[in-house]
Specification:
It catalyses: 2 a quinol + O2 = 2 a quinone + 2 H2O. With about 650 residues, this protein is an all-alpha fold. It has helices at about 1-10, 15-35, 40-50, 55-80, 90-125, 135-155, 170-175, 180-210, 220-255, 265-300, 310-320, 335-350, 350-365, 375-395, 400-405, 410-440, 445-470, 490-520, 560-565, 585-605, 605-635, 640-645; strands at about 580, 635.
Length: about 650
């Protein structure tokens, strides 16, 4: 065992060694603090085993922020490496590993969980429900995502990181990459993918079955709509990923030949399967972002979202088209012209429903009195920047033109314009917007705006020059270049922008720490004068049962209408009834740890460990089936407790 650890622990690289030490110190510090403050039990009962959707959402967001830090650090290292020609900060192998982990972490362990976290916090509240449909499953979703992410991250210090790009193309990932790196990729994604699929199922059922009386499908707020459609895409797309990852795991561990170049394997099959999942995946992260911006724009423009119905139709159209465009990721890999034409047209067609959305947002802003809060700043900056991402996407979608642009920095600039101006801006915007619901106070607006300006300006300074680098022919995924190439000046500018974004991120983190201490506590549940039901709870932070009395919905902007009608019922007159809630669950956490153990065993082909983990997982399933009756009984929140919780913060009617 000792030999095994000595063989795989990475100690020779000073950068990784430094990270090793700081990770070890942080872990020791956290363990010490928890023990010293006697917080272990609190952590276990209030968080780890909690089935409250709001707490699960918060845990998702914290994990995503940590991953943003990790992915952002990777990004800064790459930018540092590319700042000047012939730089020797990183070796070629290290550069390969970093762009692979950066891309994978940003998409699968940062953007998606961040949005799933916001969905978790907001959706049940927004539809007037007490929790999600399957709270127990929700806890399992989070922990399997979390331990999948941990497994992926372990590669960094133990055994070596994956190095075949986030697309993990065969045959490179099978025959061209010895060592455990790719195994980490396959199993980390597999385990966390289970969590994502379960979340998709959970939200489809929640949104269909648990809406408050009166909330018809067409009255659902836009964030709920986008979350519903996203959940559907997850349900259809993630099984493709599951199967593809399993097949490649067989190729690597058991010598099958699904994607090899020899013995009847076909690497192109991987590309097809990967992008058949991968393209819908980018809509899984962009659609909830659209939903967040819609909520924010209508709140701070003080108007109903313009063209609510056309928004919904365009959502559905985008989701269908997202499955019909995947071949645009390999226009240049030798398909026929006819084939490329078909996929070129479906790709460009996506611009139409997306354009409709842009006009709807502009229509909402038109002749409104805009309130420039921090969330709104992100939303306003999103519109023009995302248009740049969209327009360059159409340029790439033309098969003939793609022969020029693909695999150079024009592409890198394009997808960062969509992923950052679309998704990351939305994550920050949604975080600031719903922060009072999660923590009972707003974030400081001055620091919020400062962070916004650093990040938004830094972003454009970083990525606009990359379009030009693309025109100048700089390829993607190269670790250095020559002075004669003439790419130096633009690369310097780009790195300066990246530093600006890093500072912006640090200000966001500082703002959280600052506001925890200094911001004014919210007393009402409605700090922004909101329009939708999540703002209708009596307390600033809703109790675990959300609504003491389930609200009734009379239109889009349900809460706004309640406020306009001024029929906020006096609290004394309400007759509370006991509320049925689910109990905490510990099996999901244990099971996810076992997933990690089994996954780690497979990564290193330690069969005993893999089998032990597998048996443990099965045992958990059996246990759960036997115990389910008792566990599912849950408990009742008594009328007394409800009264106590609703009392001190009565809102004036
Ligand atoms: C914080 C600012 C960011 C910077 C400075 C940055 C920078 C970079 C750089 C330099 C590359 C490598 C390009 C190459 O060598 O070909 C890259 C690749 C990539 N980035 Fe980012 N990035 C940032 C944020 C993000 C975010 C937020 C996402 C996704 C949500 C993302 C997704 C990707 C993907 C998917 C790749 C491709 C990886 C691959 O080639 O396999 N990046 N980024
Ligand atoms: Cu695509």
């Amino acid at each position: 065992m000792f030999e095994f650890i000595k063989e795989h622990l990475i100690l020779d690289d000073p950068l990784i060694l430094g990270a090793n030490i700081s990770i070890a110190l942080t872990v020791i510090g956290i363990v010490f603090a928890l023990t010293y403050l006697k917080k272990w039990k609190w952590l276990w009962t209030e968080w780890i085993t909690s089935v409250d959707h709001k707490k699960i959402g918060i845990m998702y967001i914290i994990a995503a922020l940590l991953m943003l830090f990790r992915g952002g650090f990777d990004a800064l290292l790459m930018r540092a490496q590319l700042t000047v020609p012939n730089n020797e900060l990183l070796t070629p192998q290290h550069y390969n590993e970093i762009f692979t982990t950066h891309g994978t972490i940003m998409i699968l362990f940062m953007a998606m969980p961040f949005l799933l976290g916001l969905m978790n916090v907001v959706i049940p509240l927004q539809i007037g429900a007490r929790d999600v449909a399957f709270p127990y499953l929700n806890n399992l979703s989070f922990w399997s995502f979390f331990f999948g992410a941990i497994l992926f991250n372990v590669s960094f210090v133990f055994g070596g990181s994956p190095d075949a790009g986030w697309t993990n193309y065969a045959p490179l990932a099978i025959e061209g990459s010895p060592g455990p790196g790719i195994n980490y990729y396959l199993l980390g994604l597999q385990i966390s993918g289970i969590g994502t699929l379960l979340t998709g199922i959970n939200f489809v059922v929640t949104i269909f079955k648990m809406r408050a009386p009166g909330m018809t499908l067409l009255r659902m707020p836009m964030f709920t709509w986008t979350s519903l459609i996203t959940s559907f895409i997850i349900v259809f797309a993630f099984p493709i990923l599951t199967v593809s990852l399993a097949l490649m795991t067989f190729d690597r561990l058991f010598g099958t030949h699904f994607f090899t170049l020899t013995d009847g394997g076909n690497p192109m099959l991987w590309s097809n399967l990967f992008w058949l999942w991968g393209h819908p995946e980018v809509y899984i992260v962009i659609l909830p972002a659209f939903g967040i911006f819609s909520e924010i724009i209508s709140t701070f423009a003080r108007k109903t979202l313009f063209g609510h119905k056309s928004m919904i139709i365009s959502l559905v159209v985008i989701s269908l088209l997202s499955f019909l465009v995947w071949v645009h990721h390999f226009f240049t890999m030798g398909g026929s012209a006819a084939l490329n034409n078909v996929f070129s047209i479906t790709t460009m067609a996506i611009a139409i429903p997306t354009g409709i959305k842009i006009f709807n947002w502009l229509g909402t802003l038109y002749k409104s009195r805009i309130q420039f809060s921090t969330p709104m700043m992100w939303a306003l900056a999103f519109i023009p920047t995302f248009v740049i991402g969209g327009v360059t996407g159409v340029m790439l979608g033309m098969a003939a033109a793609d022969f020029q642009y693909h695999n150079n920095y024009f592409l890198v600039a394009h997808f960062h314009y969509t992923l950052i101006a679309g998704v990351v801006f939305a994550c920050f915007a949604g975080f600031e917007y719903w922060y009072p619901k999660m923590f009972g106070h707003k974030l400081n607006e001055r620091f919020g705006k400062l962070a916004f300006w650093f990040f938004a300006i830094g972003f454009n300074v970083c990525f606009l020059p990359q379009f030009l680098l693309g025109f100048a022919g700089m390829p993607r995924r190269v670790y250095t270049y020559l002075p004669e190439d003439g790419w130096t000046a633009l690369n310097v500018v780009s790195t300066i922008g990246a530093i600006g974004m890093g500072i912006g991120f640090m200000i966001v983190v500082y703002n959280v720490l600052y506001s925890m201490r200094h911001a004014k506590r919210e007393t009402t549940g409605d700090p922004w004068n909101g329009r939708t039901l999540e703002w209708a709870t009596a307390t600033a932070m809703p109790p675990h049962y959300n609504f003491a009395v389930v609200p009734e919905v009379k239109g889009i902007d349900a809460f706004w209408e309640i406020k306009q009608a001024n029929n906020a019922v006096k609290k004394e007159n309400i007759e509370y009834k006991p509320i049925h809630m689910p109990s905490n669950a510990s099996t999901p956490f244990v099971m996810s740890v076992l997933f990690f153990v089994a996954g780690f065993g497979l990564v290193f082909e330690l069969w005993w460990m893999a089998i032990l983990g597998g048996i443990g997982i099965l045992a958990c399933l059996v246990l759960r089936s036997l115990r389910s009756h008792r566990e599912d009984e849950g408990y009742y929140v008594s009328v007394d407790e409800i009264k106590k919780r609703e009392q001190p913060i009565q809102r004036e009617a």
